[in-house]
Design goal:
107 residues, mainly alpha, three-stranded parallel β-sheet, 3 strands, 9% strand, globular
């Protein structure tokens, strides 16, 4: 990627990043983990914001914006949302679509 040698896997070809992923895990990468997710993404790895630890629309939007503010330009945000929680899915999915339409760099 970008002229650097890297282990070639289906994952690395799909995401265009080294084959290391920091999965979204509540609470480590949600409410208290914005700095950790930003550091992982800014270092060039796949880091996910854990949506399971963001139980309200206001908190979800605030944490996504906080993460966007801490990431380097051009680095996208990955969010692990839980479809198994119908209440949270019902607000998180439409909110993420709206934030993306507004220009928040959600991948």
């Amino acid at each position: 990627i970008d002229g650097e040698e890297m282990l070639d896997t289906k994952f690395s070809r799909f995401v265009g990043k080294p084959p290391i992923m920091m999965s979204g895990m509540t609470p480590t990468t949600s409410f208290f983990g914005i700095d950790l997710v930003a550091a992982c993404a800014n270092a060039g790895y796949q880091g996910e914001l854990g949506g399971g630890g963001l139980p309200t629309p206001e908190l979800t939007e605030a944490k996504i914006q906080e993460l966007a503010d801490k990431q380097k330009p051009g680095v996208g945000i990955n969010i692990n949302m839980l479809y198994l929680n119908a209440r949270m899915w019902a607000f998180q999915f439409p909110l993420v679509l709206e934030l993306s339409r507004r220009g928040v760099p959600i991948e």
